[in-house]
Amino acid sequence: MCIALISTAHPAYPLILLSNRDEFLNRPTAPAQWWSSPHSHVLGGRDLQRAEQGTWLAITKQGRIAVLTNFREEGDTYHTADKSRGAIPNAYVTQPPERKEGSEDFARRLIEEVGVGDVGGFSLVFGELRPWELKDGAREFPGLSIVSNRSVKADDLVTIATAEGETHGLSNSHFGDRSWPKVVHGEELLNAAIEDDFKDGNRDQSGFAERLFEILSIDKLPKRKQGEAWDTYVRQMRNSILIPPVGGISAESKPADSMASGKDGVDTPDRGNVEVREFGYGTQKQTVVLVDNTGRVKFIERTLYDQEGRTVRVKDGQREFTFEIEGWQDP
Q1: Domains and CATH numbers, the chain
Q2: What are 271-293's pLDDT values in tens digits?
């Protein structure tokens, strides 16, 4: 039940990206860091459980960025994939820095060479960050593209974030699905935070980032009612931006898709009775990315739970990186 929120509405930041990664809390995961050679230009976390060691969110020194969300698939549409979805954003950010590949070319390569038929349902938001241009008195941006293996043609790309004032949310459904309250609520909260920051002339980047983490921490998941069917309760997750620890099955034996699909669960009367260290599923990591008008990136990741399922204090779980995008002003 991950969520990504993206905006071009702040005058000081051509791109704002917020992300919650929801997973089994004891799934082996590397925190955000610069990757080792030959991919030392890539910054992001990694999934250590699958051989691909894929990512859900990463950015490169050259400004390529990718964030992935899963599809919530129920019944017969759910299947165990042969390949990790983390390989999908990997394919974009690990390409050689000097390689020039447009969005349609990458989507075609993804479908024809990398392959998307042997992974579970996903949506990938990706693109190369560059300065806005002034056209007819309005700011225009290079934009980001969205590709999904639930519409597997390269020419089915959706383009977003091409104009000033756009704010979009994406969770575990197709882009534009307004039936997910967490997406609508997240967009509203992000717009309000941007408006307040601009109106107040705050320019306190740390304070603004903290406000964004507050958005990612909105918990509207109700307690599970006595006798409530598990698949019914799982659907409540579409209401909550943050997913607190809830009952489920061990990450060692089942993928998180089965949790999201409503196929499995433990019959606990409320989430407070779950033994997090063994069975917890929820928001594992939170990330805020701010890109300013000079091409300066601030990437902040918070780990909420350690590999034993224990709560991590903010000061211990936060990683922060700042760097300048190479070639920001290049044509």
Answers
A1: 3-324 (3.60.60)
A2: 434 444 455 789 999 999 999 99
